[in-house]
Design brief:
By secondary structure, this protein is of the alpha/beta class. It has helices spanning 8-29, 36-49, 60-70, 88-95, 116-119, 139-149, 201-210, 232-262, 291-300, 317-320, 331-336, 351-365; strands spanning 53-57, 78-81, 99-102, 124-127, 152-156, 164-165, 168-169, 176-180, 194-198, 215-217, 220-221, 277-278, 284-287, 340-343.
Length: 366
Amino acid sequence: MKVPYVALDSQWTDIRDEAMPLIDQVLSTGMYLEHDLISSLEENLASTIGVKEAVLVNSGTDALLMALLVLNVKRGDEVITVPNSFIASVAAISHVGANPVMVDVGPDHLIDVEKIEAAITLRTKAIMPVHLEGKVCDMKRIMEIASKHGLKVIEDAAQAFGSELSQIKAGAWGDISCFSLHPLKNLNACGDGGFIATNDTSIANRLRALRSHGQRERNNSEEFGFVSRFDSIQAAILTIRLKYVDSIIARRRVNATLYDSEFLVSKVVIPFVDPRVFHTYHLYVVEVKNRDLIKEELSKAGIDTRIHYPKLITEQNAYLNRYRDDNLSIPVALEQRNRILSLPIHHHLSEEQISYVAQTLRKFHD
């Protein structure tokens, strides 16, 4: 049996008939970058998360970079974050000249909040928790720590659209939050995309200028900005996909429950989830022994899996060539990166396919 990790072709088929007239409308107007669909989508995204403003940009990475800039994080400042994220989290910190300070993670793969305060120094400017896999960090505690020490909080919510902690959406906790609309996300564009969420209208207005060369009006740049505009065709596609994202998340949660039940009597370690968290399962990450061998055997059996991420940020040349931290202590993250394995979880999977994945994994693991 073949079990693909993703099914992007099927996702397009799901919405094609509904999306094509909207795409044709955009192309017919010639408003490829400034169509009203963009501002309408921003309003809907903000409403969905429960914040005042959402600003669309052309990637989750640009969202992080511009979020740091508008919070005045600059050269020599320190930003507390985690080593087990995608490289973009630390790349954005590096691009503004700040220094990442790594805090280890807990059994849920998220930042260990009990270790944050020990990492704070006089140079600390912000905390960047990363909501990995569709989970949400302990934002209540993080916001308490940030308030105590006068720090800004930037939520890296690239993998957590629709996720919640105590019925508050990921992205509605911090000073500013950043989302990715990459094709592999639960809410996904047909290409790169991202957005920034905030309750500060002045910040949102500055971000809208920054994404277009710092211009609030044509031919007048108030500051040097970027080319990070969001195009109207992607806005048309996302306008349709946003309508169905709740049902997509619901299906992924059902799939996760099916996996959980399959592994009840297994030695496979299923995702650890805080009971306060509404997990949207961007990823379904298990921990297994002999991970690389098992991944290879699953591939031979027709099962496509991924590793998020096989190397920590602190092990990559981009980090090693710029930063050195002889006191780095991240034993949990180091252990987890050798055991984690992402199983197919997309909403086009059948129960038969999920059972096949689980039984095959148990065959090679248990």
